[in-house]
Automatic annotation (TrEMBL):
GO cellular component, one term: membrane
Taxonomic classification: Bacteria, Bacillati, Bacillota, Bacilli, Bacillales
Domain AB hydrolase-1: residue ranges: 27-132
Transmembrane segments: none
Protein name from the UniProt record: Pimeloyl-ACP methyl ester carboxylesterase
InterPro entries: AB_hydrolase_1, AB_hydrolase_fold, AB_hydrolase_sf
Classification via Pfam families: Abhydrolase_1
Signal peptide location: none
């Protein structure tokens, strides 16, 4: 049964944004959805994490009750909007960023651009900058279908500004943002191959997941063997433990400072 997550809205310079929060101890855990994912996607972990930590989940522009975007939703725009939301909510750094899928790119960029605000990062089967090259390994028919599907976004003003149309720009911003900070980093990777995914694509993604772990000397890797792309839904206990471990490591680091 899905657990209800109470939501609210607030104005930010980027527009009205919908969010959910639970105030406890810091550092605050910021849940960053995958592409077009809603707050409700965290229902199996939100309440458990909220028992011991401040937790924030939110809908990016164009999702749920948040305003529709009117500008390109690339990484820098999304990170700026998130920081504005946290400021409006009076949620102060440092933060633990938890990024799923495409949300992992934004966590990656946020940590590089505002390293002093980040105490730790958890990546949940996160998109990797080098995942962009996977389409080039597909057969010509699949590549053509992907291009055709992408064209449909331009027919709608709302979808025109969708984040999925600006992934390459987001990746370029990550590459220019400097090194990833030496902070607690827990990488949770789905170990179950999706039925339609070719073996060689799964191998590329697995290697990219390992590359994440090397971003920080404090990096750790967890494989959710019974999960595909949504470990927070299929193996929530693993994800909860990963986030709690990251919080514990971050708190120890903060005490040393």
């Amino acid at each position: 049964m899905m657990k209800f997550i109470p939501k609210a809205k607030t104005h930010t310079p980027s527009g009205m944004m919908e969010y959910a929060q639970s105030i406890k101890e810091g550092p605050a855990v910021i849940l960053i959805n995958g592409g077009s994912g809603p707050i409700e996607g965290w229902y199996k972990i939100f309440h458990e994490l909220a028992e011991t930590a401040t937790v924030v989940a939110y809908n990016r522009l164009g999702v749920g009750g948040s305003d529709k975007p009117s500008t390109p939703q690339h990484g820098e725009t999304i990170v700026t909007a998130l920081r504005q939301l946290l400021a409006e909510m009076s949620i102060r750094p440092p933060y633990i960023l938890v990024g799923h899928s495409l949300g992992g790119l934004y966590a990656n960029l946020f940590a590089r651009q505002f390293r002093d605000e980040i105490a730790g990062v958890v990546l949940l089967d996160s998109s990797h900058p080098q995942d962009l090259g996977i389409n080039e390994t597909q057969n010509p028919f699949i590549k053509r279908i992907n291009r055709i599907l992408g064209m449909f976004d331009s027919f709608s003003l709302g979808r025109k500004w969708s984040e999925v149309n600006f992934v390459e720009e987001t990746v370029a911003q990550i590459e220019k943002a400097g090194s990833f900070p030496d902070i607690p980093l827990v990488v949770v990777s789905g170990g179950k191959k999706p039925p339609m995914m070719p073996e060689h694509v799964m191998e590329i993604r697995a290697n990219n997941q390992l590359d994440f772990v090397r971003l920080s000397k404090q990096g750790q890797h967890i494989i959710a063997h019974r999960s595909g792309h949504f470990p927070q839904l299929t193996e929530p206990d693993i994800v909860i433990r990963a986030v709690l471990d990251c919080i514990q490591m971050a708190r120890k680091n903060l005490l040393r400072e």
